[in-house]
């Protein structure tokens, strides 16, 4: 019997090309070279542009150019998600991150804007993923990483994301059925007045479900305001894990751990 032909080398070539691509992307996303840092700064700047588009989406949705912009941004987000996935050191850990699934949900709403129009408000979640990612703090704000600025920025980003998510939900599900909600600004006005418990009363959601939703908005929004106030006002503590007991927050000038008394060696910028 004649020997079988040897397997072609094309799959190996493809594997090697994919591996080289992953190494190259890993260098861009995690490297320390000037080129890698410039690349990450460009990605973050693009993120802010996309977030701005997501915020104004309800106000430009009826314009003819909207679908073109939507699909262009869908391509950009798809490339971004694929590149980050290929650059991830451990795919199993990457797929367990909430940020990956949030970006995937954003991409789905971009790919099907007409069918998922009521869920377009989920796109603003990308603001939350940006400010809660190590990618942002280790690139743009490395100087403020693990400081009060990081905690305050994360709390503020969470609050702003929450306001726009709730506004989008109210606009999507009540604008057509409520006589006083004529546009996105009216929904934003209702959300802010409800979260701040001002309650002017000129816009109220109808029925028991509307009242329950208003209560939920007030309670959750108040909690986020308290969290922001804590980040601004409470004494700042440095993050440094105690090797003995695992306590992660200590005073800036701490020499010993308050929990177990072990000697600490917290690094600082003093000469």
TrEMBL record:
InterPro entries: K_chnl_dom, K_chnl_Slo-like. It is a multi-pass membrane protein. SUPFAM superfamilies: Voltage-gated potassium channels (SSF81324). Residues 162-231 form the Potassium channel domain. It comes from the Bacteria. The chain crosses the membrane at residues 41-60, 66-87, 99-121, 155-175, 211-229. Keywords: Ion channel, Ion transport, Membrane, Potassium, Potassium channel, Potassium transport, Transmembrane, Transmembrane helix, Transport. It is found in: Membrane. Pfam families: Ion_trans_2 (PF07885). This is Ion channel.
């Amino acid at each position: 019997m004649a020997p079988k032909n040897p397997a072609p080398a094309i799959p190996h070539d493809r594997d090697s090309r994919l591996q080289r691509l992953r190494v190259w992307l890993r260098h861009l996303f995690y490297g320390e070279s000037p080129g890698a840092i410039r690349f990450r700064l460009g990605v973050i700047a693009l993120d802010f542009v996309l977030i701005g588009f997501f915020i104004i989406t309800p106000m430009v949705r009826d314009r003819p150019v909207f679908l073109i912009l939507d699909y262009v941004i869908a391509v950009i987000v798809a490339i971004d998600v694929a590149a980050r996935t290929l650059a991830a050191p451990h795919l199993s850990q990457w797929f367990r991150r909430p940020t990956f699934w949030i970006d995937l949900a954003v991409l789905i709403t971009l790919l099907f804007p007409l069918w998922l129009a009521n869920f377009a408000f989920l796109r603003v979640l990308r603001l939350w993923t940006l400010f809660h990612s190590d990618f942002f703090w280790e690139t743009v704000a490395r100087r403020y990483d693990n400081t009060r600025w990081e905690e305050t920025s994360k709390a503020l980003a969470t609050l702003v994301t929450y306001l726009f998510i709730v506004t989008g939900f109210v606009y999507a599900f009540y604008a057509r059925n409520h006589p006083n909600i004529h546009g996105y600004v009216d929904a934003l006005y209702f959300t802010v007045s409800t979260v701040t418990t001002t309650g002017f009363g000129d816009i109220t959601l109808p029925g028991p479900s509307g009242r329950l939703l208003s209560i939920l908005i007030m309670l959750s929004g108040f909690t986020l305001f308290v969290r922001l106030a804590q980040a601004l006002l409470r004494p700042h503590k440095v993050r440094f894990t105690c090797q003995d007991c695992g306590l992660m927050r200590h005073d800036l000038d701490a020499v010993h751990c308050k929990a177990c008394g072990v000697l600490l060696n917290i690094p600082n910028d003093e000469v």
